[in-house]
Amino acid sequence: MSDVARSREQRKADTLARLAAPVLDAWVATDGPYLVPLTLAWFEERLIAATDGASPTAKSLISTGRARIGIGPTRDVIMIDAVLERRLPVGEAHEVGEAYAAQNDWDPRTAGPDYVFLVLRPTRIQAWREANEIPGRTLMRDSTWLP
User: Fold this and answer.
1) What backbone phi and psi angles, to 5 degrees, belong to 80?
2) Residue 64 sits in a domain of what CATH number?
3) What kind and span of H or E run contains 33?
4) Is residue 1 in a domain?
5) Across all residues in the chain, what is the average pLDDT?
6) At 31, is the pLDDT very low, low, confident or very high (cuts 50, 70, 90)?
């Protein structure tokens, strides 16, 4: 464990770099008993998920309007609470679809009309590596980056 905790500015920069990195894999929890691995994209300060619109994850997220997202290993974690801003059928999501496909190794627009993009607005983002970074781990609150 490093004795020196990263500054808030460094944590934010590291978090944004991870969110924009190719193939953003995450664990997504919804209100139901569902914790699923999904590949996301970071676009215009939103997380974009793609899944079958009839899946339990999509149904739960659409019903409750919220998700908790975990990214990274336990010693370099990003935890995000997010709300569903909108649901877009893949055939109608041109700009979002382009952004998703550009960041990832798969284009859900080729998966068929049952797939949807779920646009999630982060309301809280936390990031830490070790116990010394737990104080001050909150980088965003109420959808606003902290100074």
Assistant:
1) -130, 125
2) 2.30.110.10
3) none
4) no
5) 95
6) confident
Chain centroid, CA 60 distance in Å: 16
Q: Is the pTM of this model over 0.90?
A: yes
DSSP at 21:
S
Taking a C-beta distance cutoff of 8 angstroms, is the pair 20, 5 a contact?
no
Indicate whether 125 belongs to any domain: yes
Q: How confident is the model over 96-116, as a mean pLDDT?
A: 95
User: What separation, in Å, do the N-terminal and C-terminal C-alpha atoms of the chain show?
Assistant: 26
Distance in angstroms (rounded) separating the CA atoms of residues 130 and 57: 30
Identify whether 79 is part of a domain: yes
For residue 75, the SS3 value is coil
Q: Is residue 74 part of a domain?
A: yes
pLDDT tens digits along 73-93 = 999 999 999 999 999 999 999
Q: Which residues contact 123 (CB under 8 A, 6 or more apart)?
A: 81, 82, 83, 140, 141, 142, 143
Considering Cα of 30, then 35, then 39, then 42, what sign does the dihedral take?
A: positive
